[in-house]
């Protein structure tokens, strides 16, 4: 029997954004509902498997709402949305019972990947991952494999997380700080030079094929995209 789709409640007072997120998640196979306030989230009859929860709501704090849910025994994981990107804010959200933290502005692709990752981590075996594709590159989350032009590429766990994050945000430049937060997460104690090191590792493996997909934007960060005015061509460089 096919398991029911995971249910996601999107709580955000920016109605356009909430509807956009809910629609994107429905397109990816989730069942969704939307609430604009903490009060609506408390009283909805929709029983979510996960909440996408804005930190700032018109009638209170999403972090306080998360604490309240945890006190009352509700264990549905929470992915916070916020315009705040300070490490202290992220730690506050996570210690309140949140499971992940996405900073606005964000790509819908990234949010979907992180929602799936949280569900797999908190409810292992119930919901599968997905395959991310860009040009001739394929990242299979369930199998933990990477292929270009159908050929396997052997990556370490950290290289895999880094590539998955970049591919989920294909076309969007990610800074070293954003990469550290999302790949090494919040307890990383080193400097951002580790990002440059792992980008070089990835390039040796992923960009051994032509055309190169991992690009540096000077003084900004890194992005997965096709070279300008150059169509993809399979094979090794």
From TrEMBL:
Domain of life: Bacteria
Gene3D superfamilies recorded: 3.40.50.2300, 6.10.250.690, Winged helix-like DNA-binding domain superfamily/Winged helix DNA-binding domain
DNA-binding region, residue range(s): 129-226
Keywords: DNA-binding, Phosphoprotein
Domain Response regulatory: 7-119
CDD domains: trans_reg_C
Protein name: Response regulator transcription factor
Natural source organism: Saccharothrix hoggarensis
């Amino acid at each position: 029997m096919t398991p029911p789709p995971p249910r996601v409640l999107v709580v955000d007072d920016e109605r356009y954004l909430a509807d956009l997120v809910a629609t994107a998640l429905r397109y990816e196979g989730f069942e969704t509902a939307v609430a604009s306030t903490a009060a609506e989230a408390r009283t909805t009859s929709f029983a979510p498997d996960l909440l996408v929860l804005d930190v700032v709501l018109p009638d209170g704090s999403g972090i306080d709402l998360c604490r309240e849910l945890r006190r009352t025994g509700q264990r549905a994981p929470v992915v916070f949305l916020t315009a705040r990107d300070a490490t202290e804010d992220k730690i506050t959200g996570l210690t309140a019972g949140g499971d992940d933290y996405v900073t606005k502005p964000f790509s819908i692709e990234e949010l979907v990947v992180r929602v799936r990752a949280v569900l797999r981590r908190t409810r292992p075996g119930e919901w599968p991952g997905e395959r991310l594709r860009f040009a001739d590159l394929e990242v299979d989350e369930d199998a933990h494999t990477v292929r270009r032009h159908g050929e396997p590429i052997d990556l370490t766990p950290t290289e895999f997380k880094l590539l998955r994050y970049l591919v989920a945000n294909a076309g969007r430049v990610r800074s070293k700080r954003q990469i550290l937060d999302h790949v090494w997460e919040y307890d990383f104690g080193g400097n951002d030079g580790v990002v440059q090191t792992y980008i070089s590792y990835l390039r040796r493996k992923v960009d051994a094929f032509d055309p190169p997909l991992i690009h540096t934007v000077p003084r900004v960060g890194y992005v997965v995209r096709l070279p300008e005015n150059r169509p993809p061509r399979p094979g090794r460089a």
